[in-house]
Inverse folding.
């Protein structure tokens, strides 16, 4: 690539890759790629079409901004919030879960967290210590790489498999092959899935739920992309269809709900952890190795969350309360604005496929993959790390599927959110140049 004239000077790209010690881009983390692209942009003076990070690209809900400003004016910045969350927010989280998932959970078991990332960390810290002989998480991949990093940092064992070839009834046998060994304490997955954008069916959620109950395993369901399977309308409070969830099939669940994507309120780092009533009250003597109580909910709240953060942003809780109340009352249709992601995905996928790329995860069982927040792509003759290195010279960034636990290591994940519509002609132009410089043989 050194001898070709590319939109971004290849020497600049290669220098920054070497200077950053990134010997294998296929293993580079999302944040490492972000920093790399920041530096290349600064060195070259050229703007990238940035698709590496799942940064929401829509304005924050104004009702939340106004409520947060008012809370700050009222002086909440000077006061510690209770670690369990302010009562109005807990009430609205419980209402939201009932109205949009058709699941009943006591408000006391609805906890605000510093984003869903803290929610998964708190879950691992607590659930994986319920049974002394387990302490292992099973990841249904592909998935968000940071959640595996959390288990690594905690020193917890983990297992994973790529679910794409194990959909439908085949999922039961695959899960049992891991759960029957008695080492798994928790299962984690996202649906819609980051990065493949597959969505689990009711049959699959029932399989996960039934096996979680059978083997006394806790399911941590990451609903970061709540209601963003735009093939169905999940926007009407209290009316079907409801957002699919494993909570309909087991009481062994923790739901992680992000305000970053669904409500475009990412900057304040506030999310929701919802623990089933039965699981909250569950007792396990092995918890006493680490906590002052053998009750899961008590250990989670007064042991883990207290130690991690002592709660989350006081003013941010008022923002989320206002957003949820408006959504719960039917005053705001939060899904309508999110459809922009799906519309851009449809356009962007065509730009890629028109230039010889293929969509890696292209089917959701018998249906074409939905258009949403992410899509995956590959190019003939190039593996993931090499493809990423080449695309950086064309001012296009993404992350490799290898870091997500995918078996499709030839591919990359693209996020639609931070690519503006005004950049789409530039993306098309750069993809055309890429294809000209990388003709497909045969």
């Amino acid at each position: 690539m050194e001898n070709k004239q590319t939109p971004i000077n290849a020497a600049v790209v290669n220098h920054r890759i070497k200077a950053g010690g990134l010997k294998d881009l296929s293993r580079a983390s999302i944040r490492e790629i972000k920093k790399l692209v920041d530096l290349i942009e600064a060195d070259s003076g050229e703007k990238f079409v940035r698709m590496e990070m799942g940064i929401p690209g829509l304005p924050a809900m104004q009702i939340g901004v106004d409520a947060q400003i008012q809370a700050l004016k009222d002086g909440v910045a000077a006061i510690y919030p209770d670690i369990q969350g302010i009562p109005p927010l807990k009430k609205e989280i419980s209402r939201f879960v009932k109205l949009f998932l058709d699941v009943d959970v006591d408000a006391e078991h609805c906890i605000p967290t510093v984003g869903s990332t803290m929610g998964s960390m708190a879950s691992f810290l607590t659930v994986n210590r319920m049974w002394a002989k387990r302490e292992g998480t099973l990841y249904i991949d592909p998935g968000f790489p940071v959640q595996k990093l959390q288990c690594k940092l905690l020193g917890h064992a983990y297992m994973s498999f790529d679910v794409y070839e194990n959909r439908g009834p085949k999922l039961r046998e695959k899960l049992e092959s891991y759960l029957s060994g008695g080492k798994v304490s928790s299962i984690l997955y996202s649906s819609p899935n980051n990065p493949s954008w597959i969505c689990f069916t009711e049959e699959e959620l029932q399989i996960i739920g039934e096996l979680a109950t059978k083997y006394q395993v806790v399911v941590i369901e990451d609903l970061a992309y709540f209601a963003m399977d735009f093939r169905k309308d999940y926007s009407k409070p209290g009316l079907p269809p409801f957002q699919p969830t494993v909570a309909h099939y087991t009481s062994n669940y923790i739901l992680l709900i992000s305000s970053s994507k669904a409500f475009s309120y990412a900057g304040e780092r506030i999310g929701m952890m919802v623990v089933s009533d039965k699981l909250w009250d569950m007792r396990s003597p092995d918890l006493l190795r680490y906590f002052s109580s053998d009750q899961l909910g008590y250990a989670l709240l007064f042991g883990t969350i207290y130690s991690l953060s002592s709660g989350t942003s006081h003013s941010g809780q008022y923002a989320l309360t206002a957003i949820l109340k408006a959504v719960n009352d039917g005053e705001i249709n939060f899904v309508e604005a999110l459809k922009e992601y799906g519309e851009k995905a449809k356009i962007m996928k065509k730009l890629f496929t028109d230039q010889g790329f293929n969509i890696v995860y292209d089917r959701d069982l018998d249906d074409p993959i939905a258009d949403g927040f992410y899509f995956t792509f590959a190019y003939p003759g190039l593996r993931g790390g090499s493809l990423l290195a080449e695309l950086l010279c064309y001012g296009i960034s993404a992350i490799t599927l290898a870091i997500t636990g995918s078996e499709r290591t030839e591919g990359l994940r693209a996020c639609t959110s931070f690519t503006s519509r005004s950049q789409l002609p530039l993306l098309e132009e750069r993809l055309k140049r890429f294809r000209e410089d990388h003709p497909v043989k045969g």
In short: The mean pLDDT is 96.
